[in-house]
Amino acid sequence: MQGQRGETTGDVYGTYVEDCRVPITQQMVCYGRPQNLTMSSANLPPQYIEAEEQFRKAGSPSEKLEALEKMLALIPKHKGTEKIQVQIKKRITKWKDQTESQKKVGAKRTDPSHVPREGAAQVVLIGPINTGKSAIMSAITNSSPQVAEYPFTTRIPQPGMMFHNDIPVQLVDSPAFDPSVTERWISTLIRNADMSLMVLDISRDDLLEQMEASEAVLDDLKIELVSPEESKVFSDDGWAKIPCIYLGNKCESEKINERLSVLRELIEDLPEINLVSAEKGTGLENLKMMIVGSLGLIRVYSKRPGKDVDMTAPFVLKEGSTVSELARMVHKDIGEKLRFARVWGKNVFDGQRVSHDYELLDGDVVELHA
Length: 370
Ligand SMILES: Nc1nc2c(ncn2[C@@H]2O[C@H](COP(=O)(O)OP(=O)(O)OP(=O)(O)O)[C@@H](O)[C@H]2O)c(=O)[nH]1
Ligand SMILES: [Mg+2]
Hints:
Shape: elongated
Bound molecules: guanosine-5'-triphosphate, magnesium ion
Number of strands: 16
Oligomer: single chain
Radius of gyration: 30 Å
CATH topology of the largest domain: Rossmann fold
Largest sheet: 8 strands, mixed
Number of helices: 11
Structural class: alpha/beta
Number of domains: 3
Strand content: 15-25%
């Protein structure tokens, strides 16, 4: 099986370790004595040597396969090369298998921009490298993404669930913005979510660069971040306006006020930057409240006539939703057959009879009569 460390394959250069792509002469301490030195490279045409080099540099199984097939075609066919020809054929079979299995895996792999929605809303964490996106994710959701000092720790989106007042919101951690590596699917990821959290590192002196570099990436993706109170808008020209909360992470660091005031001086319409520290936990409860508040989510409790209400399992709706919308959410049949409802809440007297278009408020208890 390819990929086992130390597996060796012979060729006319000698034996080398395929998965390390380094000639065995440099690996001898680890992997033992070269074998199969059956023919000197001087006897081989330069095109063959080139093909061999191509094999060494190849990154994927299909590139390796292509190089091996070239080698087989170019190797002089005589008794002295018979053993090598057999070896190349065996290697071709092996890399063909690799290519096939990679194709199967590839076929199964889903689009990284598509994170199946769970909970009442989806919010994506974005921003430059190492700002603490994953650390925030880890601090406020049930997921534990890798947090590390080195750049681009996060490679693919990772979802996790955050709860605030029994409201479940799905957060999605994403790879860092970088003009040279940000892939276009990030655009779809951001557009599909209800809101973004832009994470900046305010312990660093390059705050302006973090802002400008992120803006450049977003411009390229035709995304404009707007205040969290605004709605998501897609324009005909391909641009999208996405509501966003800006976070200044690592706020326990020194000189943050100086850095922020310089930034304010340089950027006229600087969005509000909310201070948090994933490490110390500062501002995180407030952040959860802001997320749920900005998403405009309310909790409504449904009860059956004559029964007690279960206050632990709210239905979560958008602000402005009506009794009819709740009824449809509870059950299709109730939605269709709803006659009226009784509501207990802030805006009504207990058990007040309301019609279909009554606008619900956070905390309302609703008895649906179908
Ligand atoms: N001092 C301090 N360090 C933090 C804080 N949050 C994260 N870090 C550190 O910052 C580094 C990067 O954290 P990550 O969460 O991996 O950052 P990221 O933005 O997800 O990084 P990439 O995925 O590589 O873009 C790690 O060494 C963290 O320990 C914080 O609030 N304060
Ligand atoms: Mg990360």
